[in-house]
Amino acid sequence: MMTSPLNSEKSKPIGHMQPAPNGHEQSAHNGHVQSAHNGHVQPAHDGHVQPGAAPGIRVILADSQAIYRVGMKKVFALEDDIRVVAQAETLDNLRAALERYPTDVVVLEGQLIAGTIDAIPELVKHSPDAKLIVQVTEADEDNIVELYRRGVRGVVPRSISPDLLIKCVRKIADGETWIDNQSISWVIEAYRSQASSLTSPRVLPKLTKKELAIISCITRGMRNKEIAYQIGTTEQVIKNYLRKVYDKLGVSDRLELALYCLHHQLLKSYVQESEVIPLPPVAQVTPLRAKM
């Protein structure tokens, strides 16, 4: 599912946090955390969850500027369901943090991956459960399209408001894609312009009825768990089917799959050429669209 933040409040900088006089960052509670300038990963407190406490959404803050890390940590500290497990000031520190701490969401400064083309695919490959949010200073069409293409789940401005950032983290942790209307247009246009070189199928790939049923669920915004219930199988089986579908169609994720279906009218073609495909009832699913 794609979530759009456009109708939310006007974006503004995240807080106005000042570094402590001794050069260390101030904790979001009552202590100090280790300064990032020593080049090490900073755990949040002791990096452990209190016994009996719900883990919530585990977040790593990766940013070269301490002021942003401190500000975001204080913002998240006010939320019961979001917990900062570590901070990193370099890409190497981020890799180390991902190896050490189970993570649901990474809030990543775009500048940390500037000039490193394979950084995002590498992070996605080695930490598939960690969903990436990239903060950018300006909305560059080519850059944003490439970020989504390589596996980023959300792109937000550095000036995003605290409330909107919190909403973004929750939506992405819940399996959605955070994308505004302008970025949707850019991604669709980029896909259409490159569709012939990426896929260019003269004959539509042969898909089974179950694969088509799963694809129809994806285009309606359903999650793997919901699809598994609808089809009558397990969530792991749905994941296995999706990997096969991605390989057959030459796409890499749910967003590209939805765009492929839109561009090639995949389901419409198969409905016309084959038997009726068992589709889930419209009333029980959510259409794939940008949520406001």
- How widely separated are the two ends? 12 Å
Portion in helices: 40-55%
Shape: globular
Q: Reading side by side through the largest sheet, how are the strands ordered?
A: 2-4-3-5-6-7
Radius of gyration: 21 Å
Q: What is the chain-wise order of helices and strands?
A: EEEHEHEHEHEHEHHHHHHE
Structural class: alpha/beta
Low-confidence stretches: 6-39, 45-53, 273-292
| Count of DSSP-assigned helices | 11
Task: Count up the domains.
Answer: 2
Number of strands: 9
User: Which fold name is given in CATH as the topology of the largest domain?
Assistant: Rossmann fold
CATH superfamily of the largest domain: Response regulator
Tell me the major beta sheet: 6 strands, mixed
What features would you describe in this structure?
The protein has helices at residues 66-77, 91-100, 119-126, 141-149, 162-173, 181-198, 209-219, 224-231, 235-249, 254-264, 266-273, and strands at residues 2-3, 42-43, 57-62, 82-88, 105-109, 131-136, 154-157, 177-178, 290-291. The chain has 11 helices and 9 strands. It has 2 domains: 2-188, 3-Layer(aba) Sandwich (Rossmann fold), CATH 3.40.50.2300; 199-291, Winged helix-like DNA-binding domain superfamily/Winged helix DNA-binding domain (Arc Repressor Mutant, subunit A, Orthogonal Bundle). The protein is α/β, with parallel strands linked by helices and 292 residues long. The chain has a 6-stranded mixed sheet with strand order 2-4-3-5-6-7, sandwiched between helices. Residues 6-39, 45-53 and 273-292 have low confidence and may be disordered. Helices cover 42% and strands 12% of the residues. The protein is globular and about 50 Å long. Helix 4 (141-149) crosses helix 6.
